[in-house]
Amino acid sequence: MERVMERVAFGSVLLVCLVSGASALLHTANPHAVCKSCDPQPAICKSYQCIANCSFPKVCPNPDDVCAAVWWREDGVVMVETMCHDPMQPLYGVKLDNFSSSDCVLTIRFVKGRILRLCACTGHECNEHMLLNKPDNDYDLVLLRTSETKVFRLPQLCKFCDVESTACNATGVCESSCNITSICENPDEVCVSAWRRSEGNAIIETVCHNPALPFYGQYLTDYNNTVCQMKQVEDMKEEFYICSCNEEECNDRLFFTDVSSPPGTESPLSKRSLRSVLLVSLFPVLIAVVVLLSAFYCFHMFHQHNLKAPKTKGIDSETCAIIVSDDDRSDSSSANSLNHNTELLPIQLDAIVGKGRFAEVYRAKLKQGAKDESFQKVAVKIFPYEEYASWKTEWEIFSDTELRHENVLQFLTAEDRKAEQCYWLITAYHERGNLQEFLTQHVIGWDELCRMGGSLARGVAHLHADRTLCGRSKAPIAHRDLKSANVLVKADLSCCLCDFGLSLRLDNSMSPEELANSGQVGTARYMAPEVLESRMDLENIESFKQADVYSMALVLWEITSRCSAIGDVREYKPPFGKLKDHLCVESMKDDVIRDELRPEIPASWTNHTGVQLLCSSIEECWDHDPEARLTAQCIVERFSEISSTMISVSSDDKSAQDSGNYEK
After folding, report:
1. Pick the CATH number of 334-428 from 3.40.50.970, 3.30.200.20, 3.40.50.11540, 1.20.1050.10
2. Per-residue pLDDT at 623
3. Which of 211, 328, 377, 536 could connect to 220 by a Cys-Cys bridge, CB 3.0–4.6 Å?
4. Of 2.10.60.10, 3.60.21.10, 3.40.50.150, 2.60.40.150, which CATH number belongs to 157-274?
5. Which of 103, 481, 499, 548 is catalytic?
6. Strands, DSSP E only, in 75-211?
7. Are 131 and 138 in contact (CB under 8 A)?
């Protein structure tokens, strides 16, 4: 009997071993995971979980692959993309550190200005179900079925300040000036803004609202817009405009003129607005004709004068605004214009080199000719369709032929890329990048400081001037966002200004109301005290130039802080770097207005005569009183004086040294 039992036991062990071995062999023969794999599509969600709603399983090509999913919101609808993924490689730029679980638990990441949720898991089609968060107890986890729910919508994020007074006069583009962002209570609600004039006072209201319900007695018909296109409501006792849209915080910027919304969105305008748009559209054409005729007449008179008059000393190339340095030259026939050709320029994008609030900048190659295989490096600034107003502002600034200057980024052309639903600005490309990046990586000498600082001042002075150095009339321009990130470093280490998306053409005919409508713009760290406090003198267009000079002073301080002439050069820090990385207007008010703080100028900087003179000028430029500040042109002259002084000091030192050697 015992022998029988031993044989049975031995047989059982042998059977287990054989089954285990067979399983191991099967696993070795087919180690690849099977995952859901579908392009982005609306997901089915409820409570803490989502279903990919993907019917396409895929055998992963790599034995190390796991199942992954990416979740985001698009027009309020949750979208999900599922795939096989190598966990050692980044997914959408994010390295996933948790992929061994059998549950796909989504984690939030902020990637290139977008909020994404990503997850990875190990198991058969485990990325079909995604968990926004996992219950504490596994028995509470009850997975959804497709039949149980419908497409899930998240509540929208909107500006929500109820009623506030405003300086906006219902023209152009207005900022709401609302600093409160609210999560709408109902997923069906969209962002809404209303502008009205009550007893002579302009008022803006920003709220969330369900378009199924009337708003001030009006049903919203444009709530699928991506921008807030204001339309006038007729039959109201007072002047009244409303707009609605369905993008995050889209009711912050209010468009009172047509912004050419992307296809599929409405942009209704009243008859009066259409007439205004028509006049505005024709006005630049008339101006262009007048400019061309004037230029032709001036050229003709200049040519006649040269034929009659004896030759005299010509205008120095350094003093004429039409100069363009060698690394900036291009075909002028295509410069300062919109490309109206049916065929877009043959441009190949290489890599992204910068990103701002409204656009991304790419390094690109412009093919020289149909048969020529050579390329010219250019920069391409790409605006999405909803940022039409920013693109248009910058294009119109660049379109002024009198803007051309060696210390202003050279503009080539602009394009409306309808297929990609975006707008392009094509400019010269400068390999060294922006000034902030350059100063972070390099220490400069005294000569480089003078070259960089002097060229920066010349660029700002040219913007602010009402005439070119050749004597031609020119519209003064306020940059309004001067900072080291908006200054490019050229090959010869001189600087040129870029990013004119917030710039303002200073026309003497503009009323204080129109100037006030320009809003509080710029980067908080570089804002002048009067801009932070919204107390600019709108009766005087010079106030916009004075605010630019304050910002320029901070950039000059940045350049000086990285110059070896000051002695011990520390690691690069932006102005007010001791405060914090991302400064807001309110925090800057306390330091710049209440305490009148400015970046530190250590005593050691005064050991160098040139740096001491420059710092004295910088302090005059960031004076708390705008009227007391120097002009940009004055800083240009100061740099010339400082250079002359340093040459004299150097000559005196050399003479003293030679004299000492002679006595010996």
Report:
1. 3.30.200.20
2. 95
3. 211
4. 2.10.60.10
5. 481
6. 77-85, 104-105, 107-111, 114-121, 129-131, 157-159, 162-165, 173-175, 181-183, 190-198, 201-209
7. no
pLDDT digits (tens, 9 = 90+) for 458-477: 999 999 999 887 778 899 99
- In this prediction, residue 518 carries a pLDDT of 64
Q: Which two tokens stand for residue 138?
A: 């596994």
Amino acid at position 509, single letter: S
Q: What is the CATH number of domain 435-648?
A: 1.10.510.10
pLDDT at 487: 97
Category of 448 on φ-ψ map: left (φ > 0), alpha (ψ -120 to 50) or beta: alpha
Q: In one letter, which amino acid is 658?
A: D
Nearest residue to 495 (alpha-carbon basis) of 564, 557, 405, 425: 405
On whether the CB atoms of residues 488 and 499 are closer than 8 A, the answer is no
Which residue spans of the chain are classified as CATH 2.10.60.10? 34-148, 157-274
Distance CA 436, CA 486 (A): 8
Residue tagged 């002695």 (tokens): 567
Q: Does domain 34-148 have CATH number 3.10.450.50?
A: no
Give the predicted TM-score (pTM) of the model: 0.52
pLDDT at 299: 57
168 burial (CB, 10 Å; 0-12 / 13-18 / 19+) is buried
**Residue listed under structure tokens 């000059």:** 556
481 is an active site residue: yes
Ranges of residues in the chain whose predicted pLDDT is under 50: 2, 4, 8, 13-30, 136-143, 145-152, 261-274, 276-277, 302-336, 658-664
Considering the chain, tell me which residue range(s) the CATH 3.30.200.20 domain(s) occupy. 334-428
Q: For residues 498 and 488, is the Cβ–Cβ distance under 8 A?
A: yes
